[in-house]
Amino acid sequence: MQIIWLGHSGFRIEIEDAVLLIDPWLTGNPMFPAEARAAAIAGATHIVLTHGHGDHTGDALAIAKDLSIPVVGIYDMIGFFQSRDGVQGLGFNKGGTVTLGGARLTMVNACHSSSLHGDAGPIYAGSEAGYMLSGEGHTLYISGDTDIMADMAWMGDLHNPDIGILACGGHFTMDMTRAAYAAQKYFHFKTVIPCHYRTFPLLAQDASVLAAGLPDVKVIEPQVLQPIKF
């Protein structure tokens, strides 16, 4: 299994027989080199979205059409994309599990907001979500954009993820201190990978605070397009 950061909250995760693009915002992402787009999406089998905001859905529809692959996420948003844009879709809801190329993806709660840009104002995009992704002997918690939630207690107990991909840049999501608190209190991670940071000056620029708060956890600050292998 390998995890490749695409900048911001975008990831390419190669697990079992699946190549998942998580929240692929590439065009206009200041951290992503435009010339690397073809390599980043090559062989992708599914696009997985946590919510509707443009810094998460940005290139999803274009990639789905280019590669003829499905967009996966909350039922309301995926149904809207299928109807409006004619893409393949796999919509489900919190508590549901789908199998993607042998990997199992379970949708869990998040605490944020979710909408799409519309000419007349925001368009309803269902609810924000996170995911538990299991395969190759690992379970990853992909937090999506969220703050700390009491739900993390049962999520950690039931799914027992060993890898956490945590949005923790602050301002729009929990910050590094809050993410460290949540990871320590509710989970037993062996590895934590921060995201939704470094993209803009408004967000945290490094994960030193997160690492300091999790002395017994391997905190990996990802580098764009550099594989993290497990």
Describe this structure in words.
Strand 14, helix 7 (208-213) and strand 15 (218-219) form a beta-alpha-beta unit. The termini are close together. The mean pLDDT is 97. This protein is of the alpha/beta class and 230 residues long. The chain has a 7-stranded mixed β-sheet. It is 23% helix and 29% strand. It contains 7 helices and 16 strands. The protein has a single domain (2-221), classed as Metallo-beta-lactamase, Chain A. The radius of gyration is 16 Å and the shape is globular.
| Percent range of helical residues | 10-25%
Oligomer: single chain
Compute the number of helices: 7
Q: What order do the strands of the largest sheet run in, or round the barrel if closed?
A: 6-5-4-3-2-1-16
CATH class annotation: Alpha Beta
Q: Could you give a short account of the major beta sheet?
A: 7 strands, mixed
Q: Beta-sheet strand percentage?
A: 25-35%
CATH architecture: 4-Layer Sandwich
Form type: globular
Quick gist of this model?
The chain has seven helices and 16 strands. It is of the alpha/beta class and 230 residues long. The model has no long low-confidence stretch (mean pLDDT 97).
Write the layout of secondary structure elements.
Blueprint: E1 2-5, E2 11-15, E3 18-22, H1 37-41, E4 46-48, H2 54-57, H3 60-67, E5 71-74, H4 75-85, E6 89-92, E7 97-100, E8 103-109, E9 115-116, E10 123-124, E11 129-135, E12 138-142, H5 151-159, E13 163-167, H6 176-186, E14 191-195, H7 208-213, E15 218-219, E16 228-229
Parallel strand pairs: 3-4, 4-5, 5-6, 12-13, 13-14, 14-15
Antiparallel strand pairs: 1-2, 1-16, 2-3, 7-8, 8-11, 9-10, 11-12
